[in-house]
Specification:
It comes from Magallana gigas. The chain contains twelve helices and no strands. By secondary structure, the protein is mostly helical. It has one domain: Leucine-rich Repeat Variant, CATH 1.25.10.10.
């Protein structure tokens, strides 16, 4: 998995994956929940790295074209499951995936699904980096989807706890609270 984590950072490798006839990534993600926690965390890193550039992000989230549609459904499902996992290492790794997924546009139906999981994860006692990644992702979703602003206003973001962790989180919480008040 470590080699794959590095390879998905190369845009040309993503093109190879797109045309790979066995659709290995699809198969692995389809059976994600059956894998050990260590393998799941390694695969989260693969997805996180893949989403770190636009070509990889499109590969994992594009709603156009045949087999790729399966990834559009599988990647968010894996992300949501990891965010809701009881293991802190798992949801911390998933927060990095959220950060990268939300850097670019994701399909509207996926926004609400991922956003709901972010809001639920934000209710936990989180390390600063995890809370920062989740709040950054949530803000991106709120900026592109008014429904997310409404949902965040109803569910809450636990900003009273998170804004104490760092000035950058305080700033994100202030911005999110302003958006929910509009």
């Amino acid at each position: 998995c470590v080699l794959l984590q590095d390879l998905v950072l190369v845009e040309d490798f993503i093109e190879l994956l797109q045309n790979e006839p066995t659709k290995l990534i699809n198969s692995v993600l389809l059976h994600f929940k059956e894998l050990t926690d260590n393998v799941q965390m390694s695969l989260l890193k693969v997805l996180t790295n893949c989403c770190s550039h636009e070509v990889g992000h499109v590969f994992l989230t594009d709603s156009e074209g045949g087999e790729q549609c399966n990834l559009k459904l599988l990647c968010p499902d894996v992300c949501v499951g990891a965010l809701l996992h009881e293991n802190q290492d798992m949801y911390s790794k998933a927060s990095s995936l959220v950060y990268n997924l939300c850097r670019y546009q994701i399909p509207e139906d996926t926004q609400v699904e991922v956003g709901s999981a972010i809001l639920e994860c934000l209710q936990k006692d989180l390390p600063e980096t995890t809370a920062y990644n989740l709040m950054t992702g949530l803000l991106q979703l709120m900026k592109s989807n008014e429904e997310m602003c409404d949902l965040a206003g109803v569910v809450g973001m636990n900003c009273s706890a998170h804004q104490k962790l760092s000035p950058r989180l305080r700033s994100l919480c202030d911005e999110a609270q302003t958006m929910t008040a509009l």
